[in-house]
Amino acid sequence: MANFLYNVLFKRSSTFTVTILVGCFIFERGLDVITDKIFEQVNQGKLWKHIKHQYET
Amino acid sequence: MAASLGRVCKFGLLKSNYGTLFNQQVHNFSTTNQWSKGRKVLLACLGVTAGGISALIYALDQSVKAFDQVAHPPNYRWGFYGIFSSLDHRSLRRGWEVYKNVCSACHSLDFLAFRHLVGVTHTEEEVKAIAAEYQVQDGPDDTGAYYMRPGKLSDTIPAPYPNEEAARAANNGAYPPDLTYIINGNHNGENYVFSLLTGYCDPPAGITLREGQYFNPYFNNGALGMPQIIYNEVIEYADGTPATASQVAKDVVEFLMWASNAEFDERKKMTIKVIGFGLISLPLVIYWKKLKWTTVKNTKLLFTPRYKRQ
């Protein structure tokens, strides 16, 4: 597994760069989604998201 | 996988086996042991004095602040005080109602535009309708004349007075300040403004008020140019919340808190994100530090004086 990862992704600078870029994107998105979940859980009912359905037609 | 696991598990390998030798090295490399005794004592005294003075200043700052003739507002338990707690947007919506129906008679909100309310207190359609109720000056048109038109999303919220002089003339010479940054602009802003709005009382003996002044213990020296404007049922909320004086004051303060800190919720969310990211990167940083220091800590220096060499 480690060897596979090394040979395919990390060995050449070109694939290493792509790995970093794609990895960053996935990581950041994941962290954002989790953060939003926690934030909305903690502030249940207080955010605009939770009350806007009362005012939209 | 096995290889990388083994690498992580052999973490212990990175640990340096520094015992007495390492401590001895530290001792030898330090320059302080060449200092004279007097110098050490002097430095210690200096350190203790500096620390003592700082502690004293801090203690004085924390002690009773009794220089001004003013009551200090209590700290209320605001719903947005927790490290992850957002503002309550139902409260913000009512707060806008309070500002619009009460405060806007005297106070401007210059740094807020109608569009800022979209997605915070009202939907876009609602804000468009609110803006259209106002008449704002625009121009010049083709003939160079200025004209009035209904407000748009991009307009800033119109002020009650055209300039400071007009505002003073209408309020016995007192200037109602712009409320956009009033919460951040005052020490302990949210508690101060809440206490100010709900804290009017009869002046104690010995305090004389001029025409158009009202006694408020939370205002410096007590004589405030703003009359009490918040009473029970001063307005009627569209969502049916009972409009007690404290509810009205709380809602308008929460709204002004948002006006001063538009990024408030974003900041609270960022707190969660930073903690999450920190927890992930902490082990990496610790590992990296050990990796870099392991050579330093395992290096042994040997000095053989010339006379011992063959």
What keywords describe this structure?
heterodimer, A: mainly alpha, rod-shaped, B: about 300 residues, two-stranded antiparallel sheet, elongated, QCR9_sf (chain A), Complex III subunit 9 (chain A), transport (chain A)
Q: How would you describe this structure to a colleague?
A:
By secondary structure, chain A is an all-alpha fold. Chain A is 75% helix and 0% strand. The longest helix of chain A is centred in the middle third of the chain and has 30 residues, at 13-42. Chain A is rod-shaped, with a radius of gyration of 20 Å. The termini of chain A are far apart. Chain B is mostly helical and 310 residues long. In chain B, the strands form two sheets. Chain B has a two-stranded antiparallel ribbon with strand order 1-2. Chain B has a two-stranded antiparallel ribbon with strand order 3-4. In chain B, a hairpin with an 8-residue loop joins strand 1 and strand 2. In chain B, helix 4 packs across helix 10 (245-260) and helix 9 (189-198) runs antiparallel to helix 10. The longest helix of chain B is centred in the last third of the chain and has 35 residues, at 264-298. The chains are: A mainly alpha (57), B mainly alpha (310).
Strand content of chain B: under 5%
Total beta strands of chain B? 4
Order of helices and strands of chain A, N to C? HHH
Shape, principal axes of CA atoms of chain B: elongated
Q: Biggest interface and which pair forms it?
A: A-B, 21 and 28 residues
Rounded to an integer in angstroms, the radius of gyration calculated over CA atoms of chain A is: 20 Å
Distance between the termini of chain A: 54 Å
Give the low-confidence spans of chain A.
none
Q: Summarize the main sheet of chain A.
A: none
Overall average pLDDT of chain B: 89
Keywords (chain B): Electron transport, Heme, Iron, Membrane, Metal-binding, Mitochondrion, Mitochondrion inner membrane, Respiratory chain, Transmembrane, Transmembrane helix, Transport
Family (chain B): Belongs to the cytochrome c family.
Domain Cytochrome c (chain B): 90-260
GO molecular function (chain B): electron transfer activity; heme binding; metal ion binding
